[in-house]
Write a structure and sequence with these properties.
Its cofactor is Mg(2+). It is found in: Cytoplasm. This protein folds into three domains: about 10-100, GTPase HflX, N-terminal domain (Rossmann fold, 3-Layer(aba) Sandwich), CATH 3.40.50.11060; about 195-365, Rossmann fold (3-Layer(aba) Sandwich), CATH 3.40.50.300; about 365-425, Alpha-Beta Plaits (2-Layer Sandwich). The chain is about 40% helix and about 20% strand. The chain is built from 14 helices and 15 strands. The longest helix has about 35 residues, at about 160-195.
Length: about 425
């Protein structure tokens, strides 16, 4: 479809050190991404710049050096550890005589390899189409003008316009299908809420050990490997916890620094599981030197999908790779667990995690009996909307007597939002 060089297995990696902290990327992470994509890196070229070059991103001298490295190593793809504009990509391809892809394109390729379910494949295709649509004009430079002359005059639509129209049509089709998937997921969440089953969501940087931990807790057989984005399709399992009963545990896609916006948008239905969770289990690879940075990146993505306010339990994973660190639970002044130290690989400390989850959920849910007069119809509507009613009846005065159970966060939100609050209607705790 595109007049582009074919990507191959031998890659030249290009990394630029920028003075600006926000523009910096991690070279070690790029090497992990490339390895996860199944590509062999034959050379790594680095340079420093204060800002990207408008034509080649790296400057004309470095672009010539990259082209020479491609020729010397007979490489067939150049991978940049940064986001390139379509014109920069095209200019680099012209000088290197091989395929050039950026960090976003690399992540999309890994996602395409990992997608297993119908939903996952649709989400990846949507992200890829959105990414490709910005690069169409570069792929069809030889077809931008209509041909003239006898027998060559067409209806007036160039090949480029045809492809744009086809892309728009395909994107609309995928969005309709994903909307159907989102509705099905929403129904599942509503039924779980009605059954008062709390939802836990495993979140964390890619390759932090979420799937390994998920398998330990649920005895599931989810694919887990020491590579980036091993998990792409979300998995839900029911787990029985002491003193809490059944809970739903969700394993989700890992986050990464500068996660492409197209991917965040495409995986909206999947990330909804995180938005609706009662408790987030934030898995952190504590053996990594940059664990604080990865935690910040995860929290940034959580804020982006409106899940930043949900209670978190930090899981300090991979303690088997640290010296003199034992499994334990760290608690705050109120006795609420805030950190659990464990090893998902060996299973050390997993029982402590289950104990910590039970403590967090016990404190995060509240149960009340409310007596609500007929005049408070708005409050009744809100309670029905939250699906938090376990029992209801009417007394002799015509007041509505209702038993509610909801997350403490929802209760506090209602206290602030409603004119009278909820406390004045409480009969018993």
């Amino acid at each position: 479809m595109f007049d582009r060089y074919e990507a191959g297995e031998q890659a030249i990696l290009v990394h630029v050190n920028f003075a600006d902290e926000d523009s910096r990327e991690d070279l070690a992470e790029l090497e992990l991404l490339v390895s996860s994509a199944g590509v062999n890196a034959v050379d790594v070229l680095t340079t420093s710049r204060s800002s990207p070059h408008s034509k080649f991103f790296v400057g004309s001298g470095k672009a010539e050096e990259i082209a020479a490295a491609v020729k010397a190593h007979e490489a067939n793809v150049v991978i940049f550890n940064h986001a390139l504009s379509p014109s920069q990509e095209r200019n680099l391809e012209a000088i290197c005589k091989c395929r050039v892809i950026d960090r976003t394109g690399l992540i999309l390729d890994i996602f395409a390899q990992r997608a297993r379910t119908h939903e996952g494949k649709l989400q990846v295709e949507l992200a890829q189409l959105r990414h490709i649509s910005t690069r169409l004009i570069r792929g069809w430079t030889h077809l931008e003008r209509q041909k003239g002359g006898i027998g060559l005059r067409g209806p007036g639509e160039t090949q480029l316009e045809t492809d744009r129209r086809l892309l728009r049509g395909r994107i609309k089709t995928i969005l309709r299908r994903l909307e159907k998937v989102a509705k099905q997921r929403e129904q599942g969440r509503r039924s779980r809420k009605r059954a008062e089953i709390p939802t836990l969501s495993l979140v964390g940087y890619t390759n932090a050990g979420k799937s390994t931990l998920f398998n330990h807790i649920t005895q599931a057989d989810v694919y887990a490997a020491d590579q980036l984005f091993a998990t792409l399709d979300p998995t839900l399992r029911k787990v029985e916890l002491k003193e809490v009963g059944p809970v739903i545990l969700a394993d989700t896609v890992g986050f990464i620094r500068h996660l492409p916006h197209d991917l965040v948008a495409a995986f909206k239905a999947t990330l909804q599981e995180t938005q609706e969770a009662d408790l987030l289990l934030h898995v952190v690879d504590y053996s990594a030197n940059n664990y604080l940075e990865t935690m910040d990146e995860v929290n940034a993505v959580l804020d982006e999908i409106d899940a930043g306010e949900i209670q978190q339990l930090i899981i300090c994973n991979k303690i088997d790779q640290l010296e003199e660190v034992e499994p334990k639970i760290d608690r705050d002044e109120d006795g609420t667990p805030i950190r659990v130290w464990l090893s998902a690989k060996t299973g050390q400390g997993v029982e402590l995690l289950l104990e910590a989850i039970s403590d967090c959920l016990a404190q995060s849910m509240v149960s009340y009996t409310l007596k609500i007069p007929p005049a408070q119809s708005r409050l009744r509507g809100v309670l029905f909307e939250l699906d938090c009613i376990s029992q209801q009846a009417y007394d002799e005065q015509g007041d509505w007597v209702v038993d509610v159970r909801m997350p403490a966060a929802d209760w506090n939100r209602l206290e602030k939002r409603l004119d009278h609050g909820l406390s004045e209607f409480v009969v018993k705790h």
